[in-house]
Amino acid sequence: MEYYLSNISGVAKTEVPIKGSKGAYIQWLITKEHGAHYAVRKFTLDPQGVIPMHVHKYQETVVITKGKCKVCVADKVYEMKEGDFIFIDANVKHAFVNSDSPLEFFCIIDYADDMSIKTLDEECKGK
User: Fold this and answer.
1) Rounded CA gap, 55 and 38, in Å?
2) Does the pTM of the predicted model rise above 0.85?
3) Nearest-5° angle of CA 69, CA 36, CA 110?
4) Read out DSSP for 7-42?
5) pLDDT at 125 over 90
6) pLDDT tens-digit profile of 98-112?
7) Which of 5, 58, 68, 75 has the most CB atoms within 10 Å of its CB?
8) Domains of the chain and CATH, by start
9) What span, in angstroms and rounded, lies between the C-alpha atoms of 42 and 28?
C-alpha cells in the first residue's frame, strides 16, 4: 500500500494484553498490515492505571502527549510529562504507572522475530 489515511477515533481501543495491567488501553494505528516495517500505537491510561514491569525483544520509543506518569526502566525511575519521550532498547525491563489524571502516549516499535511480552514479578517503585 502506498499510503494509509485514517483518524484515531476510528481505531479500535482494546485493553493492554500484559498480565497485571489495569486501566490501560491500546490502539494500533500503523502496522505491518499497512506495509510498514514498524508499528505506531496509542496508549491511554486511566488515573492510577498501570502497565506492569515487562520485557520484550523489540525496541520502542514512547512520546507522552497528555498527563504525567512514572516510568521504571532498567533499575531507574523517571517522572515523565507531556512532551517528554524515552527510547527503550530490546530486553530492557520497564513499566508505566499513571498519576491521578488521564495519560496518553504514542509508542513506536520495530517488528522483532519474537513479539512476545514477558511480565516480570517486580513492582515499579520510587517516587
Assistant:
1) 18
2) yes
3) 45
4) -GGGS--EE--STT-EEEEEEEEE-GGGT-SEEEEE
5) no
6) 999 999 999 999 999
7) 58
8) 23-113 (2.60.120.10)
9) 7
